[in-house]
Amino acid sequence: MSQTKDKIISGILKARSELEEVLYELEKLPVSTGSSVRFTAHALNNFLSVTMGTVQLLQISLADHPDPQVKKWLKGLLRTTGLMAETVDKLMDTPVNREVRLHFEKVDMLSMVHRFCHYYQSIADRKRIRIRFESEVEHPLVRADRVIVATVLDNLVSNAVKYSMPGKEINIRISLDGKWVICSVCDQGPGISEEEQGSLFQPGLKLTPRPTGGEPSSGYGLAVAKDYIEKLGGSIWCESVLGKGSCFSFKLPVFQENEHEAGEAQVG
Description:
Layout: H1 2-26, H2 34-61, H3 68-93, E1 101-108, H4 109-124, E2 130-135, E3 141-144, H5 146-163, E4 169-177, E5 180-186, H6 194-197, H7 221-231, E6 235-240, E7 246-253, E8 263-266
Parallel strand pairs: 2-4
Antiparallel strand pairs: 1-3, 1-8, 4-5, 5-7, 6-7
Helix pairs in contact: 1-2, 2-3, 3-4, 4-5, 5-7
């Protein structure tokens, strides 16, 4: 245990040292150049390394904590930070003005949605919101990029929690439609007007409804989700009635056993 702790601390100190050097060099670069993007990504990667190391130390220190929720929260935080680190790694490896290289593989939607439900339930508890999940498919496997799917799912579930009133429910459902696996995230929030639904996935759009807990909203999450899902060969849409909630759904191709399980594709 002591050696593991020392190794984590050493990693944190190394990341902090590299971070200081990167930030110093970043200050000398002009904004919005290829170099600045890569340096910024490098800095973010080091921030995340420090964060992950700190969470791992907390897991060791709180291993005997009497509240089991503490372990679940730390595990969720570590998993989310890991997903962020993978995304930043892709950004560092992406040449300027070129699209992200997608890594196609077999993704188990059931396991992924279960993890997100578990993680966001602890956040939803603050508003007394209940997250319910059901799957009509026993093994909903899709061919997609695991990190990209997690990013989209994170956006939809976090939005549902963000815009739901206290005491309401969020229902997440996985279904099958021919060669497509469909994932739907439905809330009991304020709903979206027909006028705003027409421009829902445009970047920078901020809806009339506001987060019910004072959470931040950039207006870019849905636009990014649409871009990602379409690059994976799927589609995303919204069904909403003003005053009666919203249901965001996306579909992805079913994984076929005769396909290559993993592969990369340059999309543009």
